[in-house]
Amino acid sequence: PGAHGSSGKMAAPMDRGSRGAEPGAAPYGNFPNYSRFHPPEGRVSLLPQGLLRSLFPAATRPLLGLDVGCNSGELSVALYQHLLGLQDSNSSPEAPGAGRELKLLCCDIDPELIRRAQQSSPFPASISFASLDIMDSRAREPFLSSYLQRFGRSSFDIGFCMSVTMWIHLNHGDRGLLDFLALLASLCTFLLVEPQPWKCYRAAARRLRRLGRDDFEHFRSLRISGDMAASVTRILTRDCAMELVRSFGSTSWDRSLLLFKSTSAPPEGSDGGTASQ
C-alpha cells in the first residue's frame, strides 16, 4: 500500500519518522509493519504460475514493471519471486528455470519505508526502490521518463497497484482517483489492481478520529463510493481504454485482484497474450 501526499505535492504526514504501531498514525497508507497483518502470500497465491509467460509469450527483451505504493517492499519482492518462479528458491534471477527477465521499479512516498526496502532487497540488480509521490507530476514525469529511457521504452509492461486506490481517493478526492487510474492506464500495458472496499474507507476515517486528528479532507464529499472494485473497473474500462482480462478472486481480507489490459496499443516486443489458463 502506498502513501501519497495531498495537494499533489510531497506532503509529509505529521511525525512521519515516528509513527509507532498505531495504524491510524499512517493517514497516507504508509504503515511501518504492513506485511505483518496483510502478508504477501495472501496475494501472490491467487496469481497463476506462468502468468508473465501467458501475458508476454513473444517478449524478447526484459519486461518492465511498476509497483506504485510499495511500502517497505515485502510484497514487491514476493511478486517478483512468484512471477519469475523463484518463490521456492534463494537463487538469483539468472538461475535455471527463472523464466523471463523482469526489471521492477517500486515507489512509495515514504523515504523511511523505501530505505528499509533498499536495505532488505534480495534482488537489487532487478528491483529498484525509489521515494516518489506519484501524484506530484513535477517529480513523477522526469523520474519515470528517465527510468524508461534507460531501457529505450516509453511505457511499462505491467503495473501493480496493491491496496493504494483508497489512499489516493481519501487524500485527493474523486478527481484524484480518476487522474491516478488514468495515469496508470497510460503508463502500463497490463495493470494488476487490488482496490480497497468501502468498509476500509470507513475504518480509516474512524482510526483518524480515534487519534483526535482531522478527518480526511475529501471523505465526506466522495461521490464515487460503494462497490469500489466495480467503480475502479468501470473507470478503467470506460474512461481509460483498458479492458478487464481476469479477476483472480479475493484475498482472505476481502480484496479483489483485478487484471486489466490496455486496448490502445499492443505490448512492446510482444504479440499480446492473455491470461487464459
Brief overview:
With about 280 residues, this protein is of the alpha/beta class.
Number of helices: 9
Gyration radius from CA atoms, angstroms: 18 Å
Topology order in helix (H) and strand (E) letters: HHHEHEHEHEHEHHEE
Oligomer: single chain
Please, how many domains? 2
> What is the 3D form?
globular
- Low-confidence region ranges: 3-21, 89-99, 269-277
> Within the largest sheet, what's the order of strands?
3-2-1-4-5-7-6
Question: How would a textbook summarize the main sheet?
Answer: 7 strands, mixed
Q: What is the first-to-last residue Cα distance?
A: 28 Å
Structural class of the secondary structure composition?
alpha/beta
Task: Give a written overview of the molecule.
The protein is an alpha/beta fold and 277 residues long. It has 2 domains: 97 residues, Rossmann fold (3-Layer(aba) Sandwich), CATH 3.40.50.150; 110 residues, no CATH class. Strands 3-2-1-4-5-7-6 form a 7-stranded mixed β-sheet, sandwiched between helices. Strand 4, helix 7 and strand 5 form a beta-alpha-beta unit. Helix 7 runs parallel beside helix 9. It is globular and about 50 Å long. The chain starts with 33 loop residues before the first helix and ends in a 15-residue tail after the last strand. The N terminus and C terminus are likely disordered.
Primary descriptors:
single chain, 277 residues, alpha/beta, Rossmann fold, 9 helices, 7 strands, 34% helix, 17% strand, disordered N terminus, Bin3_C, transferase, methyltransferase, cytoplasm, BIN3_SAM-bd_dom
